[in-house]
Amino acid sequence: MSDEVPSGPAPAPVPLSGLTEIRIHGVGGTPPESLLGTLTPEHVAGDRVAGFYRTGDTRGRHREAYSWGGLTSRSRTRALWLLLLPSMLANMGGWMARRRLTSGPEEESRAPTTVMFRWAARVAALALTVSTLLMVCLLALDVVAYQCGGDAACAGRVPWDPAILGLADRPGRRLVVGAVGVLLVIAVFAYLSYRSRIAYESVPPPIRVTPQATAEVAGQVRSVGMAEAAPSRRCAAALDGGLRHPDFWNGQLWHRHLSRLHLAVCLAGLAAVLAACVREVAAQAGAEPSRTAAGIVAGLACVVIALVVALLGEDEADRRWSTGLYGAGAAVLLGAAVVAWTLPAAPTDPGMLPGMRGIVNVGWILTFALWVPLAGQQIAAWLTRRPGQWWRPATWWRRWTVERKERPATFPWGAPFVLNAVALMLANAVILSVITLVARSLGQITWGFAPGDVPADDGAGPPGTGVTVYLPPAVGATASALTLGLLAAVLLFAGGIGVGALVVRSPGRLAAFTARLRRDYGLPATPEPAPTPEPRSESAWWFSAFRHPPRKATRWRGADGAADRDGASTPPSDRPTAWVSKVALMRYLARTTTRAWILFVGIVVVGMVWMLVVEYTVWILERPFPTVALTLGVTIAVAVPPLLVALLALTFRDASKRRVLGTLFDVGTFFPRSFHPFAPPAYAERAVPELVRRIWRLHDNEGRVVLTAHSQGSVVAAAALVQRSERRDGEPRVGFLSVGSPLAKLYRWAFPALFSDGLLAGLDGDAGIGPVHWRNLYYVTDYIGGPVSGPGSAVPAAVDEVLHDPPTYWYVFGQPLPPVLTHTGYWVDAHLWTRVDAMCDELVAPLPAPAPAPAAEVDGALLSEDPDTVAR
């Protein structure tokens, strides 16, 4: 077959042969104008949401930028992702599993997680859906439809008038109207799930087409080209090799399957709540047929939920089962609505909806029961990883103090369980706050179930309305406990970080740090007297940041001296400068990033202990929650929804604020939605395939690629490079320069099963896409990026290179001190571009023939390629 392109679309407007440097930004969505240093970059591939831009060539190479920030921040609807934060945490928790093997052939060929873990993690994520549904039903069916809709004084406060619709004395029909409100919330999640799947998961990854298969692929114009992969039915977490598998970013069918299962639980759960309440109302009204029918419908709804829980253990998307259960959930909901609508008229007694108290209790018990498999699996896995006499304190101490330092750092305490617990606490804190706020707006809250209970009035509510809204005491107590618990955990963590910062900047610590910092710059630890420069010369204008600046202007300045009133030079102070103190502070903050596990574990521990105390006091001892704590907690809780609405409005209007919000989601939305379908979409489902396509297209046009990737962009680049190719001949040769990369500091730490040490070690050598030459640059002050090699790691130490931050300690008198660049200053560091130039030169220059090496070793000589081909 000829390689000539047939007639059709116009050829590419830019040359694709030769060497191309592709710059990939990190979190926050740096625009291509800033990446390329030009006001008029040329759009050459992709679209305005995520695309490739090019500027003028330099040093014999093309310069492109891959701007993917629009996937997380460009659209105004991205502001609504804040509502999906708990779902995102639940989905993240499923990817935070640990595994026994971190490198080697077995690690490369096996799935990153076990069957038992995947089922337990999906069931724990389902607990979040069940809990959210339960609280929404409490608000819509009980507070609004039953209590307020049945009270003439409160009826005018609801969106619909029960008297006009003839529902004032028909509690069953009011419950149907309330169920419609819950159904609208479910519909919103279903729509968001569908729309995001079309925009993200529907982008299939590219595959290589062999010459034998070319005839079977329509539309291919070259003998060996690209095609779109067929949709994969398997869950990404169950694929052998994890990120290496070609179908890892091909999750459209699985997401649709998981979405229908969660929607089936939502519909069946709503049907169960509606039917159970109708059953109790019918019993009070003496309507036995309705009571019997409601009981049957509730039982069928529970069967649907049980089947969904069982089906979550499967790793293959089964359209028949998911669609069938989705339809079954809709059918039982319709049955519950019919039973409720035909319920005869009955008076509405003051108090909560009959049956809702038991439903809330059963719902919370079910929520915690869905956590049990994940908790058990995590404990069993922990014991499996620690064989022997693990129960001895000496063994624990050795593993914490010695063995922990001999292996790459990871999240230390049951990360999947912790993240799911934090997600559930955040969701309940917000929803219970909304319930309290709505109840306050409708009337005066009474913490009880009926008038016979002893109320604990919070004194809120419109005075003189005569409207009383009953809420379970546990609602107020739980809202207060979660709000105060979360606030206490955050304040304690921030206080601990603040105390550590004060210690680091103490005089004794700063003196020792100054000596170390001077050695980093190649200076003696103890400053030596500097020669006095010539007056009125350029050298007289330069000062060292290790020295205190002059106190008074004089005719000329010594390089390190200070001046007195008469203009005479005085000996410099030995006290560390403010510049040294700032560098010490930024290095300390960079070391505290991975201590975020203390915050997450602290939230779970404080929240769970506080919840146990509250529930024991309210339910077991039957005592009211302390009035002061209840009032304070409720006051803070009711302020949460307005603040959330204000934040949403601010980010909806301002694109820069959306980029800041997108930074929060850049890590959490990287992974496929394999555990919770209502999480924000994974931008990598589109970004990784697009980058792979670009690399292969440049390669097929006799081009080579150097990726300069910053921060989260390096994670996208690594995910593209490790994917296995369908063809092993003529692979692209790629240079990879990661800058401020969180690959090890955050991703190997938090997601060790996916970003394993073996996967990172394979990046520098024969990676999935082909030979890769990798260098990792970082600052010690970087709170996101860091080294990828270290004790116990299989990554070669030669991959890492530390850059000075600040790049220099010299500054011109009257100008600002050398800035600490930390994580965001790499692009303005001249030392970075010298490394980029060196990488490009090395990729073009011919390499010596590779020496034989064991398969497990990483050998940069695998990058060799015919220089004549590159020269073209």
Topology overview:
Layout (H helix, E strand, L loop, with lengths): L17 E7 L7 H5 L5 E5 L4 E8 L2 E7 L2 H4 L11 H11 L9 H5 L5 H34 L3 H4 L15 H31 L4 E3 L17 E3 L23 H34 L2 H24 L7 H23 L14 H30 L7 H9 L13 H28 L1 E4 L20 E4 L1 H32 L2 H14 L21 E3 L17 E2 L5 E2 L7 H14 L4 H25 L6 H27 L1 H14 L15 H17 L2 E8 L1 H10 L12 E6 L3 H8 L6 H7 L1 E2 L4 E9 L20 E4 L6 E3 L17 H15 L22 H5 L1
Parallel strand pairs: 1-4, 1-12, 7-8, 12-13, 13-15, 15-16
Antiparallel strand pairs: 2-3, 3-4, 5-6, 9-17, 10-11, 14-15
Helix pairs in contact: 3-5, 3-13, 5-7, 5-8, 5-11, 5-13, 7-8, 7-10, 8-9, 8-10, 9-10, 13-14, 13-17, 13-18, 14-16, 14-17, 14-18, 18-19, 20-21
- Which stretches are poorly predicted, pLDDT < 50 over at least 5 residues? 1-11, 211-225, 455-464, 553-571, 847-872
Beta-strand residue fraction = 5-15%
Gyration radius (Cα, Å) is 31 Å
Helical/strand content category: alpha/beta
Please, how many helices? 25
Q: Which term fits the overall shape?
A: globular
**What value does the average pLDDT take?**
81
Helix content: 40-55%
DSSP summary, beta strand count: 17
Q: Span from first to last CA?
A: 23 Å
Q: Largest sheet at a glance?
A: 9 strands, mixed
Structure in words:
With 872 residues, the chain is an alpha/beta fold. Among the domains are: 18-68 and 683-871, Rossmann fold; 113-205 and 249-398, no CATH class. The chain contains 25 helices and 17 strands. The longest helix is centred in the first third of the chain and has 34 residues, at 115-148. The two termini are 23 Å apart. The chain crosses the membrane at residues 119-141, 175-194, 261-281, 293-312, 324-343, 363-383, 417-439, 481-504, 596-621, 627-650. This is Putative integral membrane protein. Residues 553-575 are annotated as: Disordered.
